[in-house]
């Protein structure tokens, strides 16, 4: 198994790609700390893992709160005795406007995409050092590699995530900690519906999604499991000589 004896923390773990990661990593032998604000969905994914004979614990947290970003690391260590792998997956689409932007919409996007990730990672690094090293993965986006016309705040936040990733890759290499990001294209999760259909967008959800599919060389949106597969590789020892990489998993969207 590819993650045997590894302890992994995943945020935004009760839905979409994070949920797919919980199921996949547990099937590969990891002990999984699954973090989300949605207790009922968290309970359901943890039950799915344990019913299948895997190991997972659910940690309910609101990652807009700094104290919760720290507590999820502490709770993981209390549950499993340490931490080897961290997947900072939480994020938020934010507003699509710039003119007349609502400060609350700006704040929540920056808090969940950037601030929470700094706070969680900062608490996790000493725990990874105690284990002699580890691996950190961020979820950025293709909007963190190119400018997304629909999502200026989101683009700014995800470029920030990729900047954090590149900086930490150099900083933590001497500690045997690898740091990478995965940059999904449009993926079939509840958040995709938000991206494609925000009220301040000029065109409707169906038209936006059809346009994204047309602009994607593979001609479709991705599946959550396809991101979990990439996350598994980047976090595992199979990627032992890979650090500082922002990997697009996007059906070829940014290749054009
Ligand atoms: N879906 C896409 O097309 C897409 C594309 C690129 C990047 N992303 C990124 O992927 C990540 C998650 O996306 P997804 O599509 O898997 O999402 P999703 O909508 O399937 O799940 C998001 C999860 O985050 C949880 N959450 C929301 N607010 C929270 C909070 N304050 N504290 C803790 N948990 C909270 C929700 O309960 C939910 O379970 C984000 O970083 C997003 O920016 C998504």
UniProtKB/TrEMBL annotation:
MF terms in GO: oxidoreductase activity
Residues making up the signal peptide according to the UniProt record: none
A Pfam family assignment: adh_short_C2
Keyword Ribonucleoprotein: no
CDD domains reported in the protein's UniProt record: SDR_c
Classification via Gene3D superfamilies: NAD(P)-binding Rossmann-like Domain
Oxidoreductase found in the keyword field: yes
UniProt keyword list: Oxidoreductase
InterPro entries on file: NAD(P)-bd_dom_sf, Sc_DH/Rdtase_CS, SDR_fam
NCBIfam families: PRK07231.1
PANTHER family associated with the record: DEHYDROGENASES, SHORT CHAIN, ESTRADIOL 17-BETA-DEHYDROGENASE 8-RELATED
UniProt similarity note: Belongs to the short-chain dehydrogenases/reductases (SDR) family.
The protein, known as: 2,5-dichloro-2,5-cyclohexadiene-1,4-diol dehydrogenase
UniProt source species: marine metagenome
Origin organism lineage: unclassified sequences, metagenomes, ecological metagenomes
